[in-house]
Design goal:
Elements (H helix, E strand, L loop, with lengths): L9 H14 L6 H14 L4 H12 L6 H12 L16 E6 L20 E6 L1 H7 L7 H11 L8 E9 L8 E2 L1 H8 L11 E8 L2 E6 L5 H17 L3 E6 L3 E3 L9 H11 L9 H17 L4 E5 L8 H14 L2 E6 L12 H6 L5 E4 L3 H12 L1
Parallel strand pairs: 1-2, 6-7, 6-9, 9-10, 10-11
Antiparallel strand pairs: 3-5, 4-5, 7-8
């Protein structure tokens, strides 16, 4: 770096440089500024090239901004005014990172007496936002506990369907069934003349949601988080059924109905005897279709299969059972945690056999993907 730049704190330089970039028309977020400050602390200020590339890697979001970044870099680090403009005067700034509390409020800062005259830029960050995008396979035990609390806020609602029950309509000329009782009651106010007629229209109700979660050995990095998702879905609303798929089919709706997630997961672990074992998706779906699906549980329901598609059984048998399930279900959603991996392709035999019968193929590797799944189910 040029000799005129004295070795100063990376936090102050990062904030000042971000201000220069914003003045030049670039969109630099607070999170990028924090990352740049940490990058400066890691690479140091002894050489220009690491400082330049640390900024390009953390502060730029589009290739179109490189030219403007280069001009701002020269203006700030070399004190070269761009296009004859005066060099901006830097004001000492202290960057403070505030951790958000559980209620979303930032704690009060106890300012140091020596910094009373220095502006403090308070940048808030939340660990919940980092967990939303983090892969379940990379979670620590503490992050699993935090994710459990966040999953409790998820609300799962199936798509609406037309019900046989009728409800009064507020529209005067609704296309429905005449409501004779309300019409006669209203006629008493007008001398028994039915001036305003009342009608009944069909009501709507959420469809049943059936969750089939693969708990085999290949799904072990994700099974713990996905079973917690099943628990949140079961206790969050009615008309949700949960099953575990491995070498056999196990219904765990009753075990997951406890409000205490630890009690519910322990009960599910006792009920599922083939946890982290092999996978026979075709046989499991056959047991579901024979015992539950075609008897009414899956009829008109949204069926969600959470599996990576690795199957030791016959893929033709899996395709046959998926075809049976498709004929009775309203929609089939397949959730594959591996779909978010770079270069993913559904090459597993089970996944390739089931995909033609799937209506929605989504990811399931993070909290954000499960929030998207809840939206897909509600459509």
């Amino acid at each position: 770096m040029p000799d005129v730049i004295a070795p100063e704190e990376p936090e102050r330089l990062a904030v000042a440089f971000a201000r220069v970039l914003r003045a030049g028309g670039l969109d630099v977020s607070a999170g990028s500024t924090i990352t740049y400050a940490r990058a400066l602390a890691a690479v140091g200020l002894g050489a220009e090239r690491p400082v330049y590339w640390a900024g390009r890697a953390t502060l730029l979001a589009r290739p179109e901004d490189i030219h403007a970044y280069d001009r701002a870099f020269r203006a700030f680090w070399h004190r070269t005014p761009p296009d004859g403009a005066p060099t901006p005067v830097e004001q000492p700034v202290v960057l403070a990172l505030d951790d958000l509390d559980d209620d979303g409020a930032a704690p009060d800062l106890d300012a140091d007496d020596s910094l009373e005259q220095v502006p403090v830029v308070s940048v808030r960050w939340s660990p919940a936002e980092m967990l939303r995008e983090r892969d379940f396979a990379l979670y620590t035990s503490a992050e699993h506990e935090e994710a459990r609390r966040l999953m409790a806020d998820l609300r799962l609602a199936g798509a609406l369907r037309r019900s046989r029950r009728l409800r009064p309509s507020r529209r005067q000329r609704a296309r429905g069934h005449p409501d004779l009782r309300r019409t006669i009651r209203r006629s008493l106010r007008s001398g028994r003349e039915p001036i305003r007629r009342s009608f009944l229209v069909p009501s709507s109700r959420p469809r049943r949601v059936v969750l089939l979660c693969d708990v085999s050995g290949s799904m072990e990095p994700y099974a713990r988080a996905l079973v917690r998702f099943l628990h949140a879905a079961v206790v969050g609303r009615n008309r949700v059924e949960a099953f575990a798929l491995g070498t056999r089919l196990t219904r765990i709706t009753r075990e997951l109905s406890s409000r205490d997630p630890d009690v519910a997961l322990r009960a599910a672990g006792v009920a599922v005897r083939d946890w982290s074992g092999g996978t026979r998706l075709g046989e499991g779906l056959r047991a579901f279709n024979d015992g539950y699906g075609q008897r009414g549980l899956a009829r008109g329901a949204v069926v969600v299969i959470l599996s990576d598609g690795w199957d030791r059984g016959d893929p033709d048998a899996l395709a046959e059972q998926m075809a049976r399930l498709q004929r009775v279900a309203f929609r089939i959603v397949w959730v594959n945690p591996l779909k978010a991996s770079a270069g993913f392709a559904p090459l597993a035999r089970g996944m390739a056999a089931a995909l033609p019968y799937v209506d929605e193929f989504v990811e399931g590797h993070s909290l954000a993907s499960l929030e998207t799944l809840a939206e897909v189910i509600a459509r």
